[in-house]
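note to self: dont lose this again. the chain is below, predicted strucutre after it. 201 aa total, dont forget to put it in the shared folder this time
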Amino acid sequence: MRIHTPNKGMIGQIYFLSRFPAMALQLRVYVPPHPLIQHWLAVARDASTPDVLFRSAMTELGRWLTYEAIRDWLPTINAEVNTPLAPCSATFVNPEVPIAVVPVLRAGLALLEGAQALLPLASIYHIGVVRNEETLEPSIYLNKFPPQFSSETRILITEPMLATGGTMSTVMTELTQRGAAPENIRIISVVTARLPYKDLA
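---
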């Protein structure tokens, strides 16, 4: 897994927090090298792309960024299944560990369809954040989070663009106040400025 230290705006990235022994949580940024992600990024960023194709590109980016984000992240269990020839060992995603997808309204909905294709049983919790025109501070106008999350819940946040990081900091605060463990939260984003990294770290 390649970890990039951001110095300019980046595209097609996954954010996650890692906890190392005797260390605080650390923000990690991963830019997947998958050629399909690169392809759909190019389609989405092309000014001549028709609206219908742009929407398809965002769906595909939601799919492939989610695929990369959940690699080595979903909890699994070992079991045994009976094949037509003989029993064999098998691995399943652990159904007892909750999975949630959090689209940040409204733009996060563009990536939701692709994410749901890979996580069809995940719970969906919407949150809407708007910037106050006077104070420039983010404020929540819709919050469908449950009162409490299990600390084991895997949470995937979909937000196509990170500009200042204020919205994402607000969402993270709302999640952690309800028991979500930061190390079990991942964010998929299509484009971002440099500034959010400092606010989210």
